[in-house]
Write a structure and sequence with these properties.
Two copies of one chain form a homodimer. By secondary structure, the first copy, chain A, is of the alpha/beta class. The first copy, chain A, has helices at 18-36, 44-51, 55-65, 77-88, 103-110, 112-116, 147-154, 165-177, 204-222; strands at residues 41-42, 69-70, 74-76, 94-99, 119-126, 135-136, 139-143, 158-161, 182-185, 198-201. Helices cover 40% and strands 16% of the residues of chain A. Chain A is globular, with a radius of gyration of 23 Å. Chain A starts with 17 loop residues before the first helix and ends in a 34-residue tail after the last helix. Chains A and B meet through helix 1, helix 4, strand 4, helix 5 and helix 6 of A and helix 1, helix 4, strand 4, helix 5 and helix 6 of B. Chain A binds a DNA duplex (22 and 22 nucleotides) through residues 10, 12, 17-20, 43-45, 54-57, 59-60, 62-63, 67, 69-75.
Chain lengths: 256, 256
Amino acid sequence: MATGRNHRPATRSRGIPEATVARLPLYLRALTALSERSVPTVSSEELASAAGVNSAKLRKDFSYLGSYGTRGVGYDVEYLVYQISRELGLTQDWPVVIVGIGNLGAALANYGGFASRGFRVAALIDADPALAGRQVAGIPVRHVDDLEAIIDANGVSIGVITTPGGAAQQVCDRLVAAGVTSILNFAPTVLTVPEGVDVRKVDLSIELQILAFHEQRKAAEAMGGEVPEAPAPGSAARGAGREQGPEGDIPAVMPA
Amino acid sequence: MATGRNHRPATRSRGIPEATVARLPLYLRALTALSERSVPTVSSEELASAAGVNSAKLRKDFSYLGSYGTRGVGYDVEYLVYQISRELGLTQDWPVVIVGIGNLGAALANYGGFASRGFRVAALIDADPALAGRQVAGIPVRHVDDLEAIIDANGVSIGVITTPGGAAQQVCDRLVAAGVTSILNFAPTVLTVPEGVDVRKVDLSIELQILAFHEQRKAAEAMGGEVPEAPAPGSAARGAGREQGPEGDIPAVMPA
DNA sequence: CGCTGTGAAGCGATTCACAGCC
DNA sequence: GGCTGTGAATCGCTTCACAGCG
């Protein structure tokens, strides 16, 4: 995940494991690059290395899609691009709405990779009346009052939430009520959705915290020391979330 | 991711499983909210539901940290906040640099959750000389020529890459050479890094493609039909990445 | 011979279910 | 009685290793 599971209890979707589905876009990107360089075929070894996985995993992944390779030769690049695109549903058009046009929402609206692969930004939506009517990335911003009408008129089934955390659940509820069944959530909030609605979460702050954990471990390891043990519960150290300056167990920084 | 594995072969880091580490920030957020409401203790059931996981998983996760709960009662909120913060390394300050100050980089620079939990943006870096000297979110933008000096002067060990895909590997190499050992990559590129450097990837377009896959499945299921079978390799359908209009296997939209 | 496709083994994570303690 | 902490069972994913095919 990035991150954030919220899927139905990992039933294989049409026989394809979730972990495989998550890698298909990666393969597709690597294959598209090969295609642009007019490379006709590619071996599992080469493609795996381009996608940053190992070749056994890649072959296993492709085996779920069918037998699309040729033994002794490899995979036909164009053919595989087509098959993966089809499997991912990218041979059709997916209108999406972005709700919450702050810095991040605007960044996404401007993001090229958005439009490039079957995703069309049908509308930008914000609660601020001052923004309504303005254009961002050439797309007009609409007021959130019109949310249901926009979803309906454009047949939107995928929504992107880039509002502040406080507004996310409310926006989510309205999206779902209006017919959206897939949500990409950038707000730092756990969304509750009914059965049948998929949520994926992207959370910058969580990613950084995971990195910090490993970084701390590397630093501790480098000094041969363990991270110091915890005091017993109920003893001292209450209310020590952040901002107490000199907790200095470990130097603030320790580049390798 | 998030998403995107690139860690060393899932050796347990100090005995804590990677999957658990990835959930700690989630628990921390839920606990912080409880703390702000001055809730003194919380049961595994309540906390799990606030974090969007099940209680057995949460208890198992906490058991890796130690026995921080009280049977028959639950967990002390403040104490747990402290323990998780410490485990994640958030009791110290992590200076980070953001490289690539386009829409996304600027959005991140403005992102509050950044500063709130021990992460301090030491510098914004961009290759565009016109940006150098400007301020974004109150932080001056520096030219990429100074990258090494900035890393060094601030003891930065975490870098965030928000450049276009083409520049990402190059920037990554320079960050690593300058001493950065953890990278959060927003560019749509597979980064190659030496042993000991952690990379996490956030890729909007991949997340959307995963949602599209499930969305397509739901639609297919709703019509009782299967996704149509593939033509044999080497036959027709070459060069059909996108843009062939009427592939229309499935209606473009099908809200539940 | 080379490379794909895949059964089988290995491994980590999740879930179950209950013993242990407050 | 209530809720934590945890062995044991289970599940899904990854990796291995090689059979099968071009």
